[in-house]
Amino acid sequence: NLPKKVKIVEVGPRDGLQNEKENVPAEVKIALVDRLSAAGFPNVEAAAFVSPKWVPQMATSRAVMDGIARRDGVIYSALTPNMQGFEAALAAKADEVVIFGSASEAFSQRNINCSIAESIARFEPVAKAAKDHGVRLRGSISTAFGCPYQGEVPLEAVADVVARMRDLGCDEIDIADTIGVATPRHAQAVMATAIRAFRVDALAGHFHDTYGQALANIYASLELGISIFHSSVAGLGGCPYAKGATGNIATEDVLYMMNGLGIDTGVDLDAVVDAGAYISQFLGRKSSSRAGNALLAK
Ligand code: HMG
Ligand code: MG
């Protein structure tokens, strides 16, 4: 009994592009976001208000948020690690802010330069400000399935951070496989742990595809009733603080599978293939979406 409807959060403009070495101009990001929102995504992660010294590619976030053609009903999200990020996201009229923590201490230090406990303390005022301003709040939990620095991540650590994100008032919580190491039964064990701590319909699977397991892990999560998944057009991406990490699962591949399963996403696959071709052409490389390339070759 798989969910009949699934929400796909398109994260390509943020997670997909944040790791690009060459600066991608705001105009290109704007054109990409506009193509994606026109394709029917209910939620596009478009920006990250983080330190430009840490992630230079995201320095265009304000210009992107100012330049996009907003569509009614589409949620445009922005990452906000602290109050400085929140203020910037608010000024840029983000519909949703994302506080991002980790289930691994080692990764927390490398990614946001503080411990898990310190990060939660930093998120508290952000969460409160989001509530005060009526902005949706999402919590993202990195390295829930494994960490590039500490290796295994215990289920209790995931349960603990999910509970903390829940207590901060998150509307949605993402369980992220930052380095794409999970396999389906492990994915289910982690998701089942998260489900015990938070509403199943507000949990999201954020799977990077480093080891080619992401689609299998999404299917395994569907079996548990998870109905929100993150993916990146053309499979763009990596994480600057996870060496060797590759992109998120390609959106085209997820949509192809959902369409085959008869699961409604409201997203037009052909339009996403076009958006993938657009950004791949700009970057001068082939899309890493198998379904996207197959459909283009037809
Ligand atoms: P810090 O150095 O500890 O922060 O960094 P600080 O408060 O001491 O500030 C230091 C400097 O950064 C100051 O500037 C601040 O103004 C500036 P200076 O005085 O040196 O010129 N600063 C900021 N600038 C712009 N926007 C801000 C901001 N905050 C401080 N919001 C901090 C802490 C979190 C800021 C830093 O570590 C950082 O920005 N890290 C970036 C983390 C990041 O973006 N990682 C990638 C996204 S997460 C991800 O990809 C995982 C995910 O996809 C899920 C998964 O797959 O796992 C979500
Ligand atoms: Mg990610």
Automatic annotation (TrEMBL):
<dbReference type="GO" id="GO:0006552">
    <property type="term" value="P:L-leucine catabolic process"/>
</dbReference>
<dbReference type="InterPro" id="IPR000138">
    <property type="entry name" value="HMG_CoA_lyase_AS"/>
</dbReference>
<protein>
    <recommendedName>
        <fullName>hydroxymethylglutaryl-CoA lyase</fullName>
        <ecNumber>4.1.3.4</ecNumber>
    </recommendedName>
</protein>
<dbReference type="GO" id="GO:0046951">
    <property type="term" value="P:ketone body biosynthetic process"/>
</dbReference>
<feature type="domain" description="Pyruvate carboxyltransferase">
    <location>
        <begin position="6"/>
        <end position="273"/>
    </location>
</feature>
<dbReference type="InterPro" id="IPR000891">
    <property type="entry name" value="PYR_CT"/>
</dbReference>
<dbReference type="InterPro" id="IPR043594">
    <property type="entry name" value="HMGL"/>
</dbReference>
<dbReference type="GO" id="GO:0046872">
    <property type="term" value="F:metal ion binding"/>
</dbReference>
<comment type="similarity">
    <text>Belongs to the HMG-CoA lyase family.</text>
</comment>
<keyword id="KW-0456">Lyase</keyword>
<comment type="pathway">
    <text>Metabolic intermediate metabolism; (S)-3-hydroxy-3-methylglutaryl-CoA degradation; acetoacetate from (S)-3-hydroxy-3-methylglutaryl-CoA: step 1/1.</text>
</comment>
<keyword id="KW-0479">Metal-binding</keyword>
<dbReference type="InterPro" id="IPR013785">
    <property type="entry name" value="Aldolase_TIM"/>
</dbReference>
<dbReference type="GO" id="GO:0004419">
    <property type="term" value="F:hydroxymethylglutaryl-CoA lyase activity"/>
</dbReference>
<dbReference type="Pfam" id="PF00682">
    <property type="entry name" value="HMGL-like"/>
</dbReference>
